Amino acid sequence: MKTLILLSTIATLAIALAGNTSTSSASKPLVTTAAVQSKPVFSSRYTPLTGRGCGSGMTRKEEREAEKHGSDIPTRCKGVGGYDIDISYSACTSEIQAEKGTERVQLASQAVFWKQKTVEWRMAQSDGKTVPFAVIMRIYKHAGDDYCATNGKVTAQFLVVKGLKGFEHIDEKIDVKTPNANLKARQIADEKYGLSL
Q1: How many other CB atoms are found less than 10 A from the CB of residue 67?
Q2: Is the whole-model pTM more than 0.90?
Q3: CA–CA distances in Å: residue 76 to residues 38, 88, 120
């Protein structure tokens, strides 16, 4: 960035000097400006998936009605930047996604009795604004059985790195056995942040 600004300044001076040595009264120095964009500063925020900040997102009356009709009560946890983590249930899976209004980012299909405790939000601060752009979450792969792919013992664990709206190109999975897996997940998200700008 410093090189770009330096080259722009040198070019402006050269044009200005060339304009001053001209004998034509119509020649005037050309002045150009370059937009300077600040380099983003990355950080993380965390959303616990149990306890305070989590509930069903439904009224007590809606919960009673859902239970009366045999529906499972979802779990909804307050996230950052207007996003929430929504966990809804089917016969043998928990569908975990980040939601903001009608926008949904599928994070994982996990066992009904999911083990995740926290979701990490990757944040970028640029030009005075801090916004979430990706989610990092641990997922579990199960052996499965005749009834459901998410039954049985855990056979592997991964960190998924998923981009939010505008950053959908961020979609990676890292084996947790990788040395410094959490740091690597953050680095991948941060490196791919710039690819969408």
Answers
A1: 11
A2: no
A3: 35, 9, 15
Residue 47's CB is within 10 A of a number of other CB atoms, namely: 20
Would you list the domain boundaries of the chain?
Answer: 1-36, 37-196
pLDDT digits (tens, 9 = 90+) for 115-152: 888 999 999 998 889 999 999 999 999 888 777 877 88
Yes or no: say if 122 and 44 are a contact pair by the CB < 8 Å rule: yes
CA distance 57 to 21: 72
The pLDDT tens digits for 26-66 are 444 444 444 556 789 999 999 999 888 888 888 888 888 88
The CA distance from 186 to 62, in Å, is: 39
Do residues 140 and 154 touch, judged by C-beta distance below 8 A? yes
